[in-house]
Amino acid sequence: MELREYLAIRSAYNLVRQDMPTERRLTFVELAILCRMSVLGRAMNTSEIAEYQGALRPTMTHRTKHLSELGLMSRTKGSSDRRNVVCEITEEGEAFVTEVCQLVCDVLHSGVVLSRTTSQRICRYIDAMGSITCMSGDLVLLGILQSTDGASTVSGLVNVLGLLQPTVSMSVAALEGEGMIERLRHNDGGGRTVDIVLTERGSSYIKEIEDAIHALVVRRKS
Length: 222
Hints:
By secondary structure, the protein is of the alpha+beta class. 57% of the residues lie in helices and 13% in strands. A hairpin with a 7-residue loop joins strand 2 and strand 3. The radius of gyration is 19 Å and the shape is globular. The two termini are 19 Å apart.
């Protein structure tokens, strides 16, 4: 998978998510769990889902419980290991995946990257992407990395990532405190401009995530 494809889908979903009712908003990793089960066409136990997302079982229990409370997934205790819950996407969950992937597809159709991709293919992209956990700070770093001149602004990142400005601003502040980015202030004739660039530490950190994204393989329909 290319970085621009990854960011295009993440950005499109961020925009779609903002228009959802608060109680129906899923994190990207939660949506990815539903897409994985939809693509596989079978139930999965919590340890299998945890391995897929590289998460601890307690974290996965929290995520699957949330999906179950929304009626998007059913949870049944395993016969041999009562702690290993078997999860299965419901009809409502399948309908939710179909609806959201079509909405993501509609957003992408207004741009260039993946503009001809179908909603079924988007589901498979999200399935692949779900194995990598990227928080808002990671997305900010990826957005800077993808910029043509290696620099961006808060407003530029908002446009690229589909995140709200307060979210981007808080992530930028946190990343600056961690030494991942630095702000370059300069006058461009029309006023003061603040460019955000990666530091050596930030570049090293985000390169590993970029390599993991490039290694993703999107499943083809059998």
